[in-house]
Design brief:
18% strand; 14 strands; 5-stranded antiparallel beta sheet; alpha+beta; 17 helices; elongated; Immunoglobulin-like; 4-stranded antiparallel beta sheet; disordered N terminus
Length: 505
C-alpha cells in the first residue's frame, strides 16, 4: 500500500542542497547563467493532528492569553499610585510587578531576571533540546498563528502550492489580500498590546478610540506591528535558522541524555515506497525498513527540516514530525514512534538490546538548578530587606570650599532623599565626623539650622536639597575630612547613609 505523494519539489535532501550550493558558487566563466546564491525553497507546512500538535495549540492559547490579558489586570497600591498589575512607567520611572515596585536605582533586579531566564532556557535545553524554541518562543507562537490563518484562507499545503504557481487572478488576489489583511490585523493587535505594558491600558485604549494618542505611542505601535508582520509572516523559519543566536548555543547545552526529536534510522532504513502487494517480509528481504519515504515528516515541519538526516540546526524540536510519522505508521500497520523524542543513550541501548533509562539528574541539570536557586533566593532576600530610604550626596567641586570672613570654612552639598514609601516622610539629617558643624538649606529656613536638619520627601519621590555645611575655624581640620551623611526616618527610625568628604585649606 502506498500513500498519496504530495509535491516534493519544494524540499531537498541535504546532499542535494550541498550539491546545489556548491554549484551555485561556481565561477561565472565556468557556469554561465548560474546565480551566486541559491534561494531557500519556501516552506509550505502541512497541517497535522496528534499529541504534540495539541500541546502546541495549548501553549499558543495560554501564552497569547497571558500576553493580551496581563495589561488589563489591576492591583491596588494606594491613592495616586498606578493600579495596573504589570506596568513599565517610563514617565514616572518605575516598574510595577504586582506588589513589587522597582526604581531605576534597582536595575540589578532586571539583571537577576535575565540570569534566571537564561539559565532556565539552559536547563530546559539540557532536558529536552529546543523545547523553548518549539513551544514558547514568541517567534514560534506568532508564526504558528500566522500559518494557521494562512491555512484557513488559502487551504491545505497542496492548495497553497498550486495557488502560488497559478497566474494572478481575481480569486487569487482576493485570497492573498484577505490573508495579509488578517496578518496586519493580528500584528496591529500585537503591537498595540505591547504598548499597553508601558501605559495605563484603559486610558490608552480610550485615547486610541478617540484618536488622541501621542506621536511616540503611534510610532511604537507601528514599529511593533511591522516587526510582527515581517517576522511571523515573511521571515518565519529564517529567523530561527539564520538570525536567532540560540540555534548556535544549543549544541553546547545537550548531551547523550537530552531528549531530542530523533529518527530511528536503524529501524527505518532503507527507505522506499510501499506497494499494495508487498509484504513486510518482502520489504525486509529487499533491504527496506519501516520508512516508506512519504515525506510527511518534512511536509509538516515549520522549518522544512528532514529529521531523517539526523540532528540539524534548523530543527526547533516541536515534535510535529512525530505526529505525522505516527499517523502514517498507524495507516500501514507498523509500530509508531519511528520518529520520537528520545535520547542518544536510549537509541544506543535499543540497538544493543539493553533497557532504556531516563536520567534527569545530571551534573548540568544540578548546576543550572543551583544557579537559578541561588539567584532567586538572592533576589527574594534583597526584595524583603531592601530599604524604603536612600540617600545620595554630591559635594560641590567648584569651589571646593569657601573661607568666610570669620575664618570658618563652608562646603556645599546637593542631597537627594529617596522616599520609596507611599506616605510623605520627614528625615533628620546630620553630618557624622564633623565637630561643631552648622547645617542650613538654601532658601528653606523651615528646614532649620544648627547641627541637624529636617528634610521632607513626598510619597514615592526623590526630594533634592542644596545644603551648606559650615565649620568654625577652631574646629576645622586642614585638607580632607571623611564624613557620613545620615538621614533618619522620624516615623520608622530607618536610617540611610552616604559617605562624603569635607574640604578645608
Amino acid at each position: 500500500m502506498s500513500l498519496p505523494q504530495e509535491d516534493t519539489t519544494l524540499t531537498r535532501r541535504p546532499a542535494q542542497a550541498a550539491k546545489a550550493t556548491a554549484t551555485s558558487h561556481a565561477e561565472p566563466h565556468e557556469e554561465p547563467g548560474r546565480h551566486w546564491f541559491v534561494n531557500r525553497p519556501k516552506v509550505y507546512a502541512a497541517d497535522v493532528k496528534g499529541r504534540f500538535r495539541q500541546i502546541k495549540w495549548a501553549a499558543l492559547i495560554v501564552l497569547l492569553a497571558i500576553y493580551y490579558i496581563t495589561p488589563w489586570l489591576r492591583w491596588e497600591r494606594g491613592p495616586g499610585i498606578p493600579d495596573q498589575a504589570v506596568l513599565i512607567d517610563m514617565v514616572g520611572r518605575r516598574a510595577y510587578f504586582l506588589w513589587i515596585e522597582i526604581w531605576p536605582q534597582e536595575v540589578y533586579y532586571l539583571t537577576g531576571l535575565l540570569i534566571l531566564g537564561a539559565f532556565g532556557i539552559f536547563f530546559a535545553t539540557t532536558l529536552a533540546g529546543r523545547i523553548w524554541c518549539g513551544y514558547a518562543c514568541p517567534q514560534t507562537v506568532w508564526t504558528d498563528l500566522f500559518m494557521w490563518v494562512e491555512r484557513k484562507i488559502e487551504g491545505p499545503r497542496t492548495a497553497r502550492i498550486r495557488l502560488d504557481k497559478a497566474p494572478m487572478t481575481g480569486a487569487k488576489f482576493a485570497r492573498k489580500s484577505a490573508k495579509h489583511a488578517a496578518w496586519v490585523g493580528i500584528s496591529l493587535l500585537t503591537g498595540g498590546a505591547w504598548v499597553f505594558y508601558f501605559n495605563d491600558a484603559p486610558t490608552l485604549m480610550n485615547d486610541l478610540l478617540h484618536g488622541e494618542i501621542t506621536s511616540g505611542v503611534a510610532t511604537f505601535i507601528a514599529l511593533f506591528t511591522f516587526t510582527t508582520y515581517f517576522f511571523a509572516g515573511w521571515a518565519r523559519e529564517q529567523i530561527c535558522i539564520y538570525v536567532c543566536p540560540w540555534r548556535s548555543f544549543q549544541s553546547a547545552m545537550v548531551d547523550e541524555d537530552t531528549f531530542l526529536v530523533t529518527y530511528e534510522d536503524w529501524r527505518g532504513e532503507g527507505r522506499g515506497p510501499m506497494r499494495k502487494s508487498q509484504s513486510w517480509e518482502e520489504r525486509q528481504a529487499a533491504g527496506l525498513g519501516d520508512c516508506i519515504d512519504c515525506k510527511q515528516c518534512v511536509h509538516v515541519c515549520p522549518t522544512g527540516t528532514d529529521i531523517r538526516e539526523g540532528q540539524q540546526i534548523s530543527c526547533i524540536g516541536c515534535g510535529l514530525c512525530v505526529d505525522a510519522c505516527n499517523d502514517v505508521m498507524r495507516q500501514i500497520g507498523r509500530p509508531i514512534d519511528l520518529v520520537r523524542f528520545d535520547t542518544q543513550s536510549n537509541q544506543i541501548a535499543k540497538i544493543d538490546g539493553k533497557p532504556e533509562r531516563v536520567k534527569l539528574v545530571r551534573p548540568r541539570t544540578v548546576i543550572y538548578s543551583l544557579i537559578m536557586l541561588v539567584v532567586l533566593c538572592a533576589m527574594g532576600i534583597a526584595l524583603m530587606l531592601r530599604p524604603t530610604l536612600d540617600v545620595s550626596v554630591l559635594r560641590d567641586r567648584a569651589p571646593l570650599f569657601v573661607t568666610l570672613s570669620d575664618g570658618s570654612v563652608q562646603n556645599a552639598y546637593t542631597i537627594k532623599v529617596l522616599n520609596k514609601t507611599h506616605i510623605a516622610r520627614s528625615y533628620l539629617v546630620t553630618f557624622d565626623g564633623l565637630r561643631d558643624a552648622h547645617l542650613s538649606v538654601a532658601g528653606d529656613e523651615a528646614a532649620g539650622s544648627g547641627g541637624s536638619l529636617t528634610l521632607k520627601a513626598d510619597a514615592d519621590t526623590v526630594a533634592t536639597y542644596r545644603v551648606f555645611v559650615k565649620v568654625p575655624a577652631a574646629s576645622v581640620k586642614p585638607g580632607s575630612t571623611d564624613v557620613a551623611v545620615i538621614a533618619k526616618d522620624q516615623t520608622s527610625g530607618e536610617v540611610g547613609k552616604h559617605a562624603s568628604v569635607f574640604m578645608a585649606p
